[in-house]
């Protein structure tokens, strides 16, 4: 007798609806990963740091220049401009005197400005102070500080970035002092050190 092959019955299991599978995949793709959260935290920290620094700078500048500031007297202005020419500064630098300045300060990237507190100092000390502030302009220190600020915004979470900023700021101050005392004798260096000490006590 001819034999006929009998196939086993096929049992099919119910599959999940296509719409449910698609929605679950979309939800998995939409949920942020730890890398996404880390990038968001980094961007938020850098943006917050820049905003904080910008607001602090604007408030500081306004507090110093808001009131009780005036142009330096003509004799001091002439001395200041002569020193700027001697130090080879091509761009003009302004000089003002402010009651609110805690110590001599240099501000401004595009329009440099040196701000002096009212000082009871002789011409020798004034020359030292002005040379120190002009050395910041000659060395491009304000632009360096801007780059350091951006570096800290990128690496705000890294304590080494903050340490590097502190050390490089100290190096800038020392380089300005070196530019002032380069041609001084021992006695002049001693008087210059006392001048720096008296200015630091004003802060």
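^ Assign residues to that structure.
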């Amino acid at each position: 007798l001819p034999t006929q092959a009998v196939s086993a019955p096929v049992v099919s299991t119910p599959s999940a609806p296509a719409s449910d599978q698609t929605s679950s995949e979309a939800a998995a793709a939409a949920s942020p990963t730890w890398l996404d959260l880390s990038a968001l935290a980094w961007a938020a920290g850098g943006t917050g740091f820049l905003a904080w620094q910008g607001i602090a700078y604007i408030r500081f500048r306004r507090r110093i220049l808001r009131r009780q500031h005036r142009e330096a007297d003509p004799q001091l202005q002439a001395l200041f401009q002569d020193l700027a020419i001697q130090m080879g500064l091509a761009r003009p630098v302004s000089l003002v005197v402010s009651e609110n300045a805690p110590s001599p300060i240099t501000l401004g990237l595009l329009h440099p400005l040196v701000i002096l507190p009212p000082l009871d100092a002789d011409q020798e000390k004034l020359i030292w102070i002005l040379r120190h502030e002009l050395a910041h302009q000659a060395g491009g220190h304000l632009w360096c500080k801007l780059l350091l600020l951006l570096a800290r915004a990128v690496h705000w979470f890294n304590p080494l970035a903050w340490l590097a900023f502190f050390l490089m700021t100290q190096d800038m101050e020392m380089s300005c002092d070196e530019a002032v005392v380069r041609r001084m004798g021992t006695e002049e260096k001693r008087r210059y050190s006392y001048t720096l000490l008296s200015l630091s006590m004003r802060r």
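The mean pLDDT is 86.
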